Amino acid sequence: VEDGYDLWLRYRPIAAQATPQYAGRATSVVAESTSPTIAAAASELRRGIGGMLQVTPAADLRDGAILIGTPASSALIRQMRLPLRRLGNEGYLLRSATLRGSRITVVAANGETGVLYGSFALLRRMQMQQSIDSLDISETPALKLRMLNHWDNLDGFIERGYSGKSIWNWQQLPTVDARVIDYARANASVGINATVLNNVNANAQILTEPYLLKVKALAGAFRPYGIKVYLSARFSSPIDLGHLKTADPLDPEVRAWWKAKADEIYRLIPDFGGFLVKANSEGQPGPQGYGRNHADGANMMADAVKPHGGLIFWRAFVYAMGPDQDRIRAAYDEFKPLDGKFRDNVIVQVKNGPLDFQPREPFSPLFGAMPKTKLALETQVTREYLGQSTGIAYLGPMWSEVLRSRTARPRPTSDVASTIVAIAGVSNVGNDRNWTGTLFDQANWYAHGRLAWNLHADPAAVANEWTRLTWGNAPQAITLITSLMMGSREATVDYMTPFGLTHLMGTSHHHGPAPWVADLGTPSWNPAYFHKADATGIGFDRTTAGSNAADQYAPEIARTFADLDKVPDEYLLWFHHVPWSHRMRSGDTLWNALVARYDLGVAKVGAMQAQWSALSGTIDPVRHAQVAADLRAQQQEAQWWRDASIAYWQSLNHLPLPEGHPLPA
Ligand code: GCU
């Protein structure tokens, strides 16, 4: 049965007549090393070739062989004197060559992980039925740190997880199950090389010996796949684990405690990545509890892992603000003054937007504003605010939009991509048979890795690639699915939060509309706080007349956002409070344009359904029916958002529905 377990690594048989280019190719897999990583690469090639071409490849040098390895561990590769110098540790070279009279394909790299990545790249070409003749391809990753953050709790539940429970079986560990290896294969296939195992709202128990032994087992399972393990650490661990009375980062005993803890971890896991920390955020403990700042806290932990080459990812998701401060200002106001104060093994991890993983936000003004600090971009692969496990929302275009956003600083041409050293995606992986809750959510895991590898990759090309690997190479299917995916995220923006509206989701679960909520104890959790709608108008004034948050951007960008004539429509109500009668660039009033935009969102989902229906018969019936059902649910959800939102705005503005708007069913 097609149940989605194989993800994009399906390796289904490809008909010989459709792929004459593979005749006499991939006849053998030659590896001169038996190291775990080279063995993993060779075994993946055998698996893929066996599946696709239905043959068992030999292991000797012959016509059609695939030779894999590094110059250090393969005499054959060494002898070929390949141009690997510029490829770093993780890059790879795929090249067609003749060696000792045999026409072969070489997968070579300086590091063994590069060989593994190159092997996946070669298999990907075959899965897409592309030629593997005359190859001369080399690739290197844009970033050294391409991460997943799991928000998995030790009790097995996943915070904001919509695909079952955690795949970390803490009961069973340190015995590692096969699924964990498949997880590592999937990550390696898209170049993800780091994983934080546990929730940022961390349980201190993860740092106790019994858990560390389990973590060690996972680290061992991932090591051949080039994946390093990190842990979320609770800042108050020295207290929680019963040793000290304080967690003050300047207290010598606290510093010694973390140092000893780091030493203990590195004795077990010599290549342990380091810690991710959520501090002084949403009730989590942190240095401010002791009158210290984020840099004091981060640096203390950085000093503990530094001798072992470890890193501290310190999150900038904070909003403990004053009563009159605009919540979206908070992270910048707190972190910008700390630029230059962090150790060089601290990376400040910033969410893509200044708020919280909304369907659309402008980029966080911290990108480009902290040139003396290493920054990571944090995105959310799991769709907390984008329908969760309902329907389809392919997030490639959203991440690409963020990466390509011009920050105009530190240099005039800077974009977000140029200001970061790492990308961390909050994982959508759970123990559902298909891993991610819906089949199309697999594409978001895939795209996260591919975009972290190549920050400027075209999200449409990534969608096209994933489609071919996942749904096959029928041209009609590729075109339809890619186009459906490419419009899907914008559809969610249209029916949930058009024109810069934001955070209108139901309280705490964040699923479905609740723009009417205004009475939550924490004011900045209220949808009403964000939309500020009343009888006369709607939107949050973030110009100088309002919270002045626009001013956190580089002057040129700030001027665009703050100018009603220049602000892009998609950020209008993010930066401006305007009357319902405000004239849009289209000439329409805001009210009419808003209603039309909700309608457009609903219509887009209808079109997605029609596109999918057209594929019945082209795609296996089980998966086809599953997605059709997902899309039916999305259709209902889109209507729910539209009708509830419009009805609520009408209860404030008493304006009639514009002509042409269909009456709610
Ligand atoms: C969101 C999310 C929380 C999460 C938080 C974070 O607010 O709803 O579940 O803990 O982000 O990123 O820390």
From TrEMBL:
Database matches in Pfam families: Glyco_hydro_67C, Glyco_hydro_67M, Glyco_hydro_67N
Active site: residue positions: 282 (proton donor), 356 (proton acceptor), 384 (proton acceptor)
Originating species: Sphingomonas piscis
EC number from the UniProt entry: 3.2.1.131
Domain Alpha glucuronidase N-terminal positions: 7-122
Family indicated by similarity: Belongs to the glycosyl hydrolase 67 family.
Uppermost EC category: hydrolase
Assembly and binders: Homodimer.
Entry GO terms, CC: extracellular region
Keyword hit for Acyltransferase: no
Entry protein name: Xylan alpha-1,2-glucuronidase
InterPro entries for the chain: A-glucoronidase_C_sf, GH, Glyco_hydro_67_aGlcAse, Glyco_hydro_67_aGlcAse_N, Glyco_hydro_67_C, Glyco_hydro_67_cat, Hex-like_dom2
Catalysed transformations (reactions): Hydrolysis of (1->2)-alpha-D-(4-O-methyl)glucuronosyl links in the main chain of hardwood xylans
Domain Glycosyl hydrolase family 67 C-terminal: 436-660
Glycosyl hydrolase family 67 catalytic domain residues: 126-435
GO molecular function, one term: xylan alpha-1,2-glucuronosidase activity
